[in-house]
Structure formats: structure tokens, C-alpha cells
Amino acid sequence: MSITSLSDPYPVQPLRGVLDTAIRLPGSKSITNRALILAALAQGDTCLEGVLFSRDTEIMLAALLAMGFSIGIEREQCRLRIRGEGGRIPNANATIDVGNAGTAARFLTAMLCLHPNGSYQLDGDPPMRGRPMRGLTDALQSLGVAECTFHREPGHFPFTLHSRGWSGGHCKVDAAASSQILSALLLTAPCGSAPTYLTCDGVRPSYVTITRAMCNHFGAGMDSADNMAKYTIPPNGYRAPSNGRYAIEPDLSAASYWLALTLIHGGSTTLPLLGQDTLQGDVRFAELLTLHGLQVERGENQWRVSSPGLTELKPVDFNSVDFEHFSDTFLTYAAIMPLLGLPMQIEGIAHTRRQETDRIAGMAHELARLGQQVHETESSITIQPNTEALRSFALEARAHGRLLEVETYEDHRFAMSFGVLASYDLIGDGAPWLAIRNPSCCGKTYPDFFQVLATRETINPKSVKNPKWKTTTG
Description:
Low-confidence stretches: 462-474
Structural class: alpha/beta
CATH class of the largest domain: Alpha Beta
Radius of gyration: 23 Å
Oligomer: single chain
Number of helices: 14
């Protein structure tokens, strides 16, 4: 069953019994797209393993091919072989469509400036034309590495970028709209002809930490000081790893759905290839759910998570959570709030209003449509959960021959988060009660999500005491 064959809206089949499953997570989108840039700019060839093939990474691949890079693609093996060009952009001209991929939009815009005399046409989907780029384009023009001709609104797609080559310099960067703006500059600057000095206050550090660690793995030798506010980037360039290979971590944002699923259903889930250490800040979501009663065993090459199920969860002594440093998972948490039965304020998420959609407004609207009391501010959402109201709404929809539906706003995280909620057997008859509109939007980061959700393994806890673990892969 392919993602394109899913009905729209897609009725989610509730899970009956407790989990007894293993889920092979897709590779991290954030790490995949950073690794693609680094391998292309490195001296030497790199084999990327555990690569995510999704819409966002395919956009990055298509752009690099249009720029003249040589890439061997092995989709079935989740592997790419990239011939590094030592900081050189092969083609002086290209037309690049960044879709609605923020990493591609920001990282490629900075990377193109390495060409000493290039001209590049850049555009994206209608939603991308509304997403902020000014902080990056202003920085590039301040450094003298590019001139941008905007064809509609200044600081937004579409635009023509005239590259001038990267000669270093000093720049104060406004990355308040997205840490990807700073990451884009950090990824490119090591390939310049002179040191680059960046000052950037108030940026969220989680993804910048990933960027710096990966750049240094490829030999950049960059440094930062003053609480990550000042960056010194020497012109060391990049080198392919000594063994010629780089492994992409499984996606911890994607893991959040299976952690939440295990929390509410009970049983156990194994997540192969996750280790004790990770680059990704979304590990904090697992730590949050342990406060509700999720047990997390982190081994060297897999995690095993387990839970007694919804009726046995721990009471918590907090009523607010700051998601600033793991905000991609706030939707997962918010979507299961109607089942957890406790008021909760989710804060630190102002920047999510400027992502694929306004995530705060969208989540508030969809939960309200499901009978929940919701209050939003510029940077937070407060949820007063009401399970009985949710059940009443579902029964009323059934009485009229339909299901409740949630809108996804072309945002993959809405689809997957509410997919977890819909998997709960709310009415108790095992029949669908909630449908997800536009499930194909999951193609952005997790094309197989609903297929994996539909084929997960469960057991009847009353009849099986020591079940054998079964595996479902996606």
C-alpha cells in the first residue's frame, strides 16, 4: 500500500490490545540534508548510510544534481554515494525549486554563494514564499558574497541570487525567525577563502548544535564562545570521513509518535539503531514522557520503551512544559492531551507560527473542533482536556454516518500526531472514529507512517504473559 493509495480523508483503525512491536525509524531529515551539503562540499567521496528518502531530501538531492554534483543513489539500501568537490560549485547557472523544505531553502541559498560568478533562480511552493528568508539574504549581502534580486516581496522567494564567492568577513546575523539561517552560514563558511566571524543572539541552540557537530566531523574546526552567540569559522574546508562513510541517525522527531503510542496503549516498542548518545535535541521528548510513566531503556544500538497503558499512568505534578528546544514534538504531546486528562500549558513555541503552517493556531483550532478547551498566546497553547466531550463528538458523528476529521494544513506533523490520537480505541468497538485529511503530506519526512501504523503488532495482555517480540518495519 503506497502513500498515494491512502484514502483522503484517511480513517485510522484503532489499536486493540497492547503493543509488542519493533519500528525501524526513518533517518533524520535534519541530519540527512546537512550531511548532503557537507559531503558535496568535502574533499573526497562519502557514502551516506541510513539516508531518509522523503520529499524534503529529494528536493535537496535534485538541487545538488542541478548544481552539477555527482551522486549515486541507492534507495532500497537507504544509501547515497557523493563525489565531493572540495568547496566548489560545479555549475554557474541553475534553476532550483526548494518546495516547502526550510532546510533546502536556507542551506542551498548560502551554499550557492561559493561560486565566484553564478546566477541562480530560486523559488518554492506558495507556503514557502511566505516563510522568512530576510535574515539570511541580508547576511549574505552584508558579507558581500551575493546580491539578491527579489521578484515579489523583498526577503522572500522567488528571487535570483548572483553569487560572488565566499571571502569571509564579519556579520551580525538575525536568525530569530529560524535557526536554519545561522546553520546555513555555518555550513558554508568553512569553504571560504578567509575566516568568517558571526554574531547571532537569541537563536535556539538545538539544531545549531547538530550543525556544528557535523561540520566539525567533516573537519571544519569551528569554534563558538559567549553562550553560542559568537562564532569563528576558519577556512579549513571539509574532508570526507577517514573511512569514507557517515551514518545518519534515526529520526527522534519521528520516534515521538511511537513513544506517545506506547505511552497510551501500553506494552513495549523496540526502536532499532538508536544509541545511548544522539545529536538530536528531541531526545527530551522521551525524558518528558518518562514523567508520565513511560519506561525508556537506552542500549548501545536500540531503545526499548514500555508503559502500563493509559489507565495506569503516573499523576504528574506540573502543568506547563517548555518545548523551545524540542518544538517539533509539541504537536505529538498536544494531540494526546485529550486522553491524558490534565490541564497543560505548552510554551516556548512562538517560532512554530512561522513553520510549515502556524502550528499554534492550527493545533488550537483542531483541538477545539474535537471538544477541547484551548487558549493560545503568541508563544504558547493551554489545553483543558475533556475525554468525554471527545467521545461524545465521535458518537454524534457516527450517528450521522460519518467520522470526525482533522485538517493537516499540508503539515506532516499534524497528520502523524493526530494519527496517534486516532489509534486509541475511544469508543471501545475497535472501529475508526477519526479520519486524517491529506495523509500524503507525511511524505515530507516519513512517507510510510500510516502504513507502519496500520501494520504494527499487538498482543492480548489477558491471554499472553510472555509474548515473543515481532517486527514491523517501515
